[in-house]
Structures are given as C-alpha cells and as structure tokens.
Amino acid sequence: MFYFYYDYICPYSYLVSERLRLLELDYFEEIERRGLSLHPNIPVEGTPLSPEKEAEIKREIEDIRSLKKGESMELTIPPVDPNTTQAIAATLFAEHAGFGWEFHREVYRAYWTDGKNIGLVPVLANIADIINWNGNELTRFLKQNDLPERMNHNLKNFRKLGVRGVPTIDFDGRVVKGVRPYEEYKKLLLDTFWDQEVYDCSCE
Predict the structure, then answer these.
(1) Partner residues linked to 4 by β-bridges
(2) Rounded distance, CA 132 to CA 104, Å?
(3) Is 102 exposed, middle or buried (0-12, 13-18, 19+ CB in 10 A)?
(4) Which CATH superfamily groups domain 2-193?
C-alpha cells in the first residue's frame, strides 16, 4: 500500500495526488491519503498572502506547469493562506462516507483553481454538495470540534519517516519525497510486486 502524505496548500502534493490516482485506477493499488496541516497555527479565517509568499507560490506554479505530463490541472495564485486542518478532517470524514477521492480532488480544485478559502466550513460544505454528498452532514461533523484521532496518527507516522515537507510517499518502508514522473511510481509498485531489486527512492 502507498501511504501518501500531503497538505492542500502544497501544489506539488496536488500533482502527485493526480498521478497516484492514475496508479490506483491502472493497477487497483490502494492509496491511503494521510493529510497533514503544515501550518496549523494559521487563523481559521486564513491570512492574506504577503508579497514574498505570493512570489513563492508563483514560482511553484511555474514548476508545476513544467512538470505536468497531461494532468488537467489549472492553477492560479490563491488570495489567502488557509488553515487546512478542517479540510483534512473533512477529507477523512468523506473517506468514511465513500466520497474520499472525489472530495479530495475538489478541495484541491477549490483552492488552486477557484481561489476559495478551504479553511472555512461553508466552503467545505459546498464542495460536499458539488459532489452530491451532504454539506449539512459535513458541517455538523466539523462543528463538533472533535477532530479525528487519525490526524494525530498521520502526524506521528510522518515524523517516524525522518523527513520534512510534502508530498512524501511511504511504500513498504521506502520513502519517496517530492514529485516523480508517473512511470517512476509505477516502477516502484511493479518492482515490489515482482520482488525485483529495490528501487532507489532517493531524492534528486
């Protein structure tokens, strides 16, 4: 199984998410998405982007455009830096309800394409309605302020890997950091399946 560590504020995580979804469909490989809020101290309402942060995101978007290989991702500079804690909690609840991938992808699109503040519960509830889930049910869940224990579990497991930053993949104890071509993720899976030599997962 692939364990995929991500945060919605990271456009590189968005690209890797799209590639792992293709792997999931092509090879029926189970992907467990483990969300992390990299900046949980950001206010719930989010913070406006500073000029430095905006320049950083602009560079990241240019990176993504050069790295894309057919993925249908439209990226714009979002207006706020959100607190993604609620979005990740909502994604876990969506998985439990059978809408995990659909919700996961739409949260990325809401932030990186539409510029929505995905730290706000009404925005997340609207995403749920868009995918024909139940926004009212999601709102009730999030307002309980009882975040899933799995979020803490994800963070503990991530720290055990001895790495910093996302996207990061843990596959049978082998760690892949950053963005790789789809073919490399496929090779990682197939080499393991056929018990061939260990794939070099070191970062460039």
Answers:
(1) 33, 169
(2) 14
(3) middle
(4) Glutaredoxin (3.40.30.10)
Q: Which residues are 171's β-sheet partners? A: 2, 174
Give the separation between CA 82 and CA 79, rounded to whole angstroms. Answer: 9
Q: What confidence score (pLDDT) does residue 1 get? A: 82
pLDDT of residue 149: 77
- State how far the Cα of 12 lies from the Cα of 60, in Å rounded to an integer: 8
Question: Where does the chain show beta strands of DSSP type E?
Answer: 2-6, 31-35, 47-48, 80-81, 168-171, 174-177
Give whole-number Cα distances, 56 to 23, 99, 184, in Å: 30, 32, 27
| Type of residue at 67 | L
**Spans of the chain, pLDDT less than 50:** 193-204
Q: What angle do CA 85, 54, 10 make, to 5 degrees?
A: 40
Q: Where are the domains of the chain?
A: 2-193
At 147 the pLDDT is 67
Measured distance between the N- and C-terminal CA atoms of the chain, rounded to whole angstroms: 23
Q: What share of the chain is helix, strand, coil (3-state, %, to 5)?
A: 50, 10, 40
Per-residue model confidence (pLDDT) at position 196: 38
How far is residue 158 CA from its own chain's centroid? 14
Report phi then psi at 52, rounded to 5. -65, -45
